[in-house]
Design goal:
The protein is mainly alpha-helical. Helices cover 63% and strands 0% of the residues. The chain contains 7 helices and no strands. This is Mannosyl-glycoprotein endo-beta-N-acetylglucosamidase-like domain-containing protein.
């Protein structure tokens, strides 16, 4: 009887412990994403000057238990992104919600993928035929990385950004450029910042 009670208490302890541990990990990931988004926005503000528009604070709030708020914010970010892509006649307009979802999944600012697509291919308007490669990934002379769909290309870029850049402390366009396209002498980072600024207008 005592042994069963002890096992029950021990099981309860471990359940509570693991729940708390997973909440702490979730909070930490959310906090790191928030800090990265703030660094990017600060870099943009330094280059473009202060923004005073309705999307200036479009990163998700750092509040535990704000699931409904995040869903509403995600919708606003998707709508903002869709409008941005339509302004440039980009075929990525139909993938705005997917881009926001993938950016959140990989833990970085939702405007990074669209800005890179604009800098590399005019928002997928000028890409190797049938490649779905809007990001300049693996394009060297005649060599081209090809994807079966825009979604596959978006997810590939998100994974690369997370694993090769963000996980190594490279968050801002300037930091990413040093590894992504070091020969651009600042023009790539300036272009990415420019389009992030346009997205936030």
């Amino acid at each position: 009887m005592k042994f069963n009670r002890f096992l029950l208490l021990l099981t309860g302890f471990f359940v509570v412990f693991f729940l708390n541990f997973s909440l702490i990990l979730s909070y930490n990931a959310s906090h790191q994403r928030h800090l990265a988004q703030q660094r990017i926005l600060k870099e943009i503000e330094t280059v473009l000057g202060p923004t005073t528009n309705q999307f200036a604070l479009s990163s998700a709030p750092l509040v535990l238990g704000a699931v409904e708020t995040q869903v509403g914010l995600s919708d606003a970010r998707s709508d903002n992104l869709r409008t941005f892509f339509k302004r440039y006649s980009s075929p990525l307009a139909d993938y705005a919600e997917f881009i926001v979802k993938i950016s959140d999944q990989y833990g970085f600012y939702y405007g990074l993928i669209p800005a890179i697509s604009m800098a590399e291919s005019g928002g997928c308007r000028v890409i190797p035929e049938g490649s779905h490669n809007c990001y300049g990934l693996g394009i060297y002379g005649d060599k081209v990385w090809r994807f079966n769909s825009y979604e596959e290309g978006i997810e590939a870029l998100a994974k690369i950004l997370k694993e090769k850049y963000i996980d190594h402390g490279l968050h801002t366009p300037g930091e990413i450029m040093e590894k992504y396209t070091p020969s651009s002498n600042g023009s790539w980072a300036n272009s990415v910042r420019f389009f992030i600024g346009k997205l936030e207008q």
